[in-house]
Write a structure and sequence with these properties.
Alpha-Beta Plaits; 23% strand; alpha+beta; single chain; five-stranded antiparallel beta sheet
Length: 147
């Protein structure tokens, strides 16, 4: 069966979550993203991420990937990002989505994380176009130079 692989960059305010991973008790960010993916893809894809975070830790750039059967994929990467953000809570935002190479694995990528005291509520916003993503990345570079 042919599959399509996608790379996601996810930002979240971790205040309300027990870390990134799916949890037996409490809610992880991964669970929320996988629930949103299940609304779009019947195969209920699993995420594979660059890292995991502890309770209350935030991310500006959690890198993850998922695979779906090519028969289930019928939208552009831009529409995928918009559709996922429509199903995600306000404190979790998909910053970017793109098709990935067959050999890409989210676990081998680096993300950008912030301790709870370094994050302000309401910082995350949705990017609606490539220009928005470029502006968001430029702002993030300025932020990290200032730290």
């Amino acid at each position: 069966m042919a599959v399509v692989k996608f790379k996601l960059i996810i930002a979240y305010d971790g205040t309300a979550y027990q870390g990134w991973q799916v949890q037996k008790t409490g809610t992880g960010v991964q669970q929320k993203v996988e629930t949103a993916l299940a609304k779009l893809f019947p195969s209920r894809p699993r995420l594979h991420s660059s890292s995991r975070t502890d309770t209350g830790v935030h991310a500006l750039g959690m890198v993850a990937h998922f695979e779906v059967p090519s028969a289930e994929y019928n939208m552009s990467s831009r529409k995928l990002a918009l559709a996922l953000n429509a199903w995600l809570p306000e404190d979790i935002r998909l910053v970017a989505a793109a098709r990935a190479r067959k050999d890409f694995h989210g676990m081998l990528e680096e993300g950008i994380y912030l301790a709870p005291s370094q994050f302000e509520a309401g910082f995350i916003s949705t990017a609606h176009s490539a220009a928005d993503i470029e502006q968001t990345c430029a702002a993030a570079r300025k932020l990290f130079k200032a730290l």
